[in-house]
Amino acid sequence: MVPISYHLILSGILFTIGVTGVLLRRNIIIIFMAIELMLNAVNLSFVALARHFGNMDGQIIVFFVMSVAAAEVAVGLAIILLVFRGRETVNADELNLMRW
Amino acid sequence: MDFVTFFALAIPLVVIAIMVIAHPSPVYSALFLVLTLFLLAVYFLFLDAHMVAALQIIVYAGAIMVLFLFVIMLLNLQSDTQPTPRRGLGRAAIIGGVILVAELGLLLQRSSSERAESSLPENFGTVEALGSQLFTTYLLPFEITGILLLVAVVGAVVLAKR
């Protein structure tokens, strides 16, 4: 059997890949996908811990995380569409109106 | 889950996740993300989370990624040709990530008090068990999630219609 730490390290690696994507890429859609990757990494650790402790609460939290992610994607992509219509760009560096 | 299954799933998972953020074309990135989500669904199956695995494919790979692909096609995005101008930030991200993973590994190695895995209840992770908990213990959060989704739908329509 694989110990729980293996699952948690895999989850940490996936989360780190997501953070790296947010910091490295300038395309807002890809930044958004990296955020989805991070959410999934967290889901993975929830499911692994639920399995480890024999308690289903972790899986229910994953259910809620998924619905929040769906809501976030719907609103976020609508905002991206709106920004693109106004500014004709999806490069995060060019959207600097609210930058100090 | 034994070690062979773990590494057979974990190594492609990490490689494809890196491809998601490394590929210049957003369409390919989205398709690699779909692949990552499918692999995670298989992973969840091995962790006895049957319902979550099904939801992962239906909600994430089915609904959310289709939305992503639709928006990419609507915006008619081309590949990023110019590299990111801030090289320093990239290097900082990679170094920080390596340090984070190393620290995590060290921390998990130190915490040697690995509890033995608890024995699983009879219907662990099935639709029935998850549903009955969702509609009893977690009824209020469930209702609030419904309202949240309604707000998101209304918000998305209002924003996109403007």
Give the structure's gist in a few sentences.
Chain A has 100 residues and is mainly α.
Structural overview:
The complex is a heterodimer of chains A (100) and B (162). By secondary structure, chain A is mainly alpha-helical. In chain A, 78% of the residues lie in helices and 0% in strands. Chain A has 3 helices and no strands. In chain A, helix 1 (4-24) packs antiparallel against helix 2 and helix 2 packs antiparallel against helix 3 (57-87). Chain A starts with a helix and ends in a 13-residue tail after the last helix. The model of chain A has no long low-confidence stretch (mean pLDDT 87). Chain B is mainly alpha-helical. Chain B has 2 domains: 1-79, NADH-ubiquinone/plastoquinone oxidoreductase chain 6, subunit NuoJ (Four Helix Bundle (Hemerythrin (Met), subunit A), Up-down Bundle); 128-162. The interface between A and B is large, with 68 and 82 residues.
Secondary-structure topology with pairs:
The complex is a heterodimer of chains A (100) and B (162).
Chain A: H1 4-24, H2 28-53, H3 57-87
Helix pairs in contact in A: 1-2, 2-3
Chain B: H1 3-22, H2 26-46, H3 50-75, H4 87-110, H5 127-134, H6 139-161
Helix pairs in contact in B: 1-2, 2-3
Measured on Cα atoms, how large is the radius of gyration of chain A?
17 Å
Order of helices and strands of chain A: HHH
Overall mean pLDDT of chain A stands at 87
CATH hierarchy: architecture of the largest domain in chain B: Up-down Bundle
Biggest sheet descriptor of chain A: none
Distance between the termini of chain A: 52 Å
By CATH reckoning, the class of the largest domain in chain B would read Mainly Alpha
By CATH, the topology of the largest domain in chain B is: Four Helix Bundle (Hemerythrin (Met), subunit A)
What is the subunit arrangement here? heterodimer
| Poorly predicted regions of chain B | none
